Amino acid sequence: MQDHSPSSIASKSRKFDTPQQEAYLNLWRTYDRLRILEDSLFQKHGITAQQYNALRLLRGNQEAGIQTLDLARKLVSRAPDITRLLDKLEENGWISRDRPKENRRVVLVKITNAGLKLLKTIDPEVLQCGIQQLGHLPENDVQLLIKLLKEARNPHEDPESIWS
Q1: CA 41 to CA 104: how far, in whole Å?
Q2: Which of these, 8, 52, 104, 128, could form a disulfide with 3 (CB 3.0-4.6 Å)?
Q3: What are phi and psi of 160, to 5 degrees?
């Protein structure tokens, strides 16, 4: 007779084909749970995590600006449609785009004062969110986690990425 008790079903459903699959699915589930906190924060401000990431990168280069494709390469997660992402930021008045006269093919993106003001408002909440997400882990575990995540993605990273 087969055992269909909840504990038997749970133990069967937790079997993985490989340790790599188990690690990957745990990583994915962890990302999903931590993202919920982040999504809630950004939703309050009418912005996505990816838009916030773009604005932070632009703030770091506010004088010179960043070319569109360079910005796309520096984002934490890939932006298959960087133009649409920038369109939304520009619609809200958080960025400006300019084509330099010397090279009209280049689009230079800069953060506006309104974008800087938004970041100033959100920054303390983002710090608090990070603490809420991983603040329960000891510092040495956080450092180990960072090291392992870098090692895991290194063979799959774009060599021109700031993350490699």
Answers
A1: 38
A2: 8
A3: -90, 0
* CATH code, domain with 45: 1.10.10.10
Tens digit of each residue's pLDDT (9 = 90 or more) over 105-150? 889 999 999 999 999 999 999 999 999 999 999 999 999 999 999 9
Number of domains forming the structure of the chain: 1
Cβ proximity of 66 and 108 under 8 Å: yes
Question: What residues make up the domain containing 133?
Answer: 18-156
- Residue pair 98/108 in contact (Cβ under 8 Å)? The answer is yes
What strand order describes the sheet that includes 66-67? 66-67, 108-111, 95-98
Phi/psi for 129 (5° steps) reads -60, -45
* pLDDT at 157 (0 to 100): 86
Which of residues 143 and 13 earns the better pLDDT score?
143
Condensed to tens digits (0 to 9), the pLDDT of residues 48-106 reads 999 999 999 999 998 889 999 899 989 998 877 899 999 999 999 999 999 888 887 88
Distance CA 137, CA 142 (A): 6
Asked if residue 7 is part of any domain, the answer here is no
Q: Using CA atoms, how far apart are residues 143 and 111, in angstroms rounded to an integer?
A: 32
